[in-house]
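Researcher: Quick sanity check before group meeting.
Model: Go ahead. Protein one:
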Amino acid sequence: MRKIYFDHNATTPVHPEVWKAVEPYLSEQFGNPSSIHWAGRDVRKGVEDARQVIATFFNCQPLEVVFASSGTESDNLAIKGIAFRKGNEGKHIVTSQVEHPAVMNACRFLEDHGFRVTYVPVNRYGIVDPESVRKALTPDTILVTIMYANNETGSIMPIPEIGAIAREAGVIMHTDAVQAAGKIPIDLGSLPVDMLTFSGHKINALKGSGGLIVRKGIEIEPLIHGGHQERGRRGGTENVVGIIAMGKSFQLLGHGMQEEVDEVRRLRDKLEKGLFERIPELVRNGHPTVRLPNTVNISFRFVEGEAMLLNLDMMGIACSSGSACTSGSLEPSPILMAMGADPTDAQGALRFSLGWGNTDSDVEFAIDAIETVVNKLRALSPLYPGTREAKAR
């Protein structure tokens, strides 16, 4: 069976150059990077070289890069780290209604511990209005945390404007850039952001790796206490293999990101155009242009999304009905509901996220398969206007 992977926002295949880069750290370069002898020094150099590559990619200082186990841990470190450090100065946090569960659940945890959280709304494209953030700020606000780009719709937030509002108010600004990093340019030299989250397995590196950029002068309370790794901000022996992999992935992106982005956008647009031309009753979820170059979220009216997923899976096509971190839920996507989507349309939504390794042939095969599945399921639906049951009503 042919296999086509259109779920790159969930995770990405590991790039061959990344495998090659980590191989020595699975064999002869095995030392603990905190050890002062030769075995540790060799590994420490690899870790610090990766830190430098990542700092160069984001245009920040190496000492501002904090390695962690994932984007989720990094989000928690940013949000709880500021709350626990600055809680005596204020108990109010501003976020949005469409954040990743790592941010949403960290905020809900803090609500159970005496903090107040304002969840600002989004428009029908799933984008936050910067003025809604401004209006939500109070003298008690210590943190604004708004994602850079949404993982389900791909809609890109106006982070420069929101960050400027937070900076003007003297409030720390954090953005979860896990989906954005490597897909759109991010320059911390000019971006008014104090903390930024990234993840390895979204950029063709390894799962179990991520990081948080903490700008110089911002103090956070560590969540993991232990040794003095990561300048005391995250205890525990570093995931060397994961860090080396991220360094290599960001190095590859630094040399060829725009070419890859342009190609993925072309394939994404080809997929979207083909679906809208051949299948009626479709609704695009998210902004038509202000979105990630690899992502399209479509509601297939009169079809249940989970049924589509199962049928497409049997045809070898991997896609998603939402965030991988909320899979298993039968409820409509809370992201789409926050955007004001019709609940029935939200139940029929699928996300296709393309990336490195996808081809024109993949797109053409997928369009045929999706059309076949939609026609099959709509023929069984009593709601679809073309069925006998619907005509009899």
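Researcher: Fine. The other one?
Model: Protein two, sequence then structure:
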Amino acid sequence: MVGLLKIAFVILLFLVLIKKKWDLGLVLFLATILTGLLFGLNLKIFAKNILKSLIANETLNLLSIILLVLYLGNFLQSRGNFKRMVDALKNIVRDPRLILAIPSAFIGLLPMMAGAMMGAPIVEEAGKRWNLTSAWKTFFNYWFRHIWEYSWPLYVNLILAAAIVKIPIKKISFVQFPFTVLAVAAGLVVLFKHVPYLPKEEENSEKRYVHDTFRVFFSIWPILLTIILIFIFRVPMLLSLGIASFLTQIFSRMKIRERWKIIQESISLKIVLLVASLMVFKRILEVSGALDSVVRVIRPEGISAYILLFAAPFFVGLLTGVNQAFVAIAFPLLVPIMGTDRPDMVLVMFAYVSGFVGILLSPAHLCLVLTADYFKAELRDVYKILIWPVSVVFGGALLALVVFRIL
């Protein structure tokens, strides 16, 4: 019980410092030091394990993957690819209501801070035909921007989760893909139920339709290439991202100064600190005996374990609003419950969905706050709409847990 209280104190420190807007990487590093002190880890062993975790292939591989993802995002954004994609989508979709969903969903394929803001102007323009309220426009833009984070392998929180529980990113993406489908379905039900059908203002010729379809796919070709290499040709993720990134440099006509600027903007010291601190924190939790103390108090099976699998990631996500935080803080502590050698994918899925549900509902979530501010919407009105599809997604995860593990 004493060990569990020490862990609770570390988590409390996490939440207090993050609420004060401290950098997550720095908070993780301070929590690592505190964990070592609370569990009486020898200074020599502490330093040795920090060094080992920093130079481990797992850490270097993870860091390289995330930096390449950031590079692709900066490249596509700086080259105007998303703008061209959205312009083409306006001419393709046959049901105008889908313009309220598809642009935000496409933009969501590329992880970026406050990415929902890119789709907000399109939703604003499209929403004029139905005279939608600010809350409804906020919901459509916000919800469809986040449908991919359960399974899209370019998201940092998914990459971190796979690294912490030591499973291939393809496996976790495959297992959690049904929740992307469920999120899409829930969002479309709300969309089609609330927004009446209106015919397109003008019809495209078949030639123009084909041309615009080609423009959509060409605008995000590095992302599509990466996914094809990973899932069809089974190329390792790091190599797939490296190939796509290299080809962007080969095929784009840019000056040396422009190329170098994109690369510089992609090397985020905050992300480097976050990844390094996470892997160090994970290792210190293991070698200090902190994880063992959790197992001794909370059995890795039964109702108490299931409650912790929900509560830890959900409340971290709800309180912080930081996508990576619920994975970085909660998942290392949940590893003994999810399994160390062969993680239970149902438990991993339930913990991940629980955490992301907390993120979606968090008033500290940057995408939600900025989108609501853009549309001048009251958060309480947005929550009235948001609570139903969020409940559907979480209900799906809870049902899977009950059917496959509890019954």
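Researcher: One line on it for the slide.
Model: The two ends are 29 Å apart (CA to CA).
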